[in-house]
Amino acid sequence: MDSKNVAFLGLGVMGYPMAGHLARAGHRVTVYNRSAEKSAKWMGEHGGKSAATPAAAAAGAELVMMCVGNDDDVRAVAMGRDGALAGMEAGAVLVDHTTASASVARDVHAAAKAKGIGFLDAPVSGGQAGAENGKLTIMVGGEPDVFARAESVLANYARAVSLMGAAGSGQLTKMVNQICIAGLVQALAEGINFAQRAGLDAERVLDVIGKGAAQSWQMDNRGKTMVADRFDFGFAVDWMRKDLSICAAEARANGAALPVTALVDQFYARVQAMGGSRWDTSSLIRVLRNAK
Fold first, then answer.
1. Domains and their CATH numbers in the chain
2. What is the rounded radius of gyration, in angstroms, for the C-alpha atoms of the chain?
3. Per-residue model confidence (pLDDT) at position 292
4. Is there a catalytic annotation at residue 115?
5. Do 119 and 65 meet the contact criterion of CB atoms below 8 Å apart?
6. Is the pLDDT of residue 1 over 70?
7. Is the model's pLDDT at 235 over the cut of 80?
8. Annotated catalytic residue: which of 4, 41, 135, 174?
């Protein structure tokens, strides 16, 4: 694959290893992070360059990837005075890996298009482990020709990269992903809690039912740690609640009913009240364990 000039904006738990995969693949990477210390650490491990602003990092880049916190961050890093679009040249492509709203994706798409710049909303699934292992699933919204220019580069940290439709479709697909996960984790929590209260060997139960129709990624990767009451890793409750609030807002707009998702979000609020804001999402079981 041809080496490209690329930029990566946002070196959090996801962006840091994703940018590393680009460097290892031979791309010339410039990074930006609000904390300069994080950029310096990344360069110490991977080489490349850093820049003081998103615009400076994006200058001369063929592709610019960003992975930040929320809608406000996306607007600032992409469209602010020193944002990526201010430094990008016509013909370049901006890819947003943030889990954000479909509306902000459409806004950035419009702003990019006005400058002759391609834009893809491309949220990811697979968590920190997926980012570190280069095995993320990327769901993408945007024009097919723009997608074609970015697909091979995104594949450096993905097991699957799929175009789902027009701008905003990637974010909408990620919402479906989070809705499904919320229900699965709650069901798994209830099943494990039931097994333990019934006096069963919960790990043995998981081994057995994991070979049947109840099997899921959550069961395979979170079941045993839920049994062991371990949650100091993974996808934080705070992040999941942010994602579910995006789902709820979109559902209010399109008329979709999300009764189970709304209930699970309330349970996550109870986990936060227990001090579990940074616990893994599988910590839902602690609500059940504390129930009389």
1. 5-165 (3.40.50.720), 172-289 (1.10.1040.10)
2. 20
3. 73
4. no
5. no
6. no
7. yes
8. 174
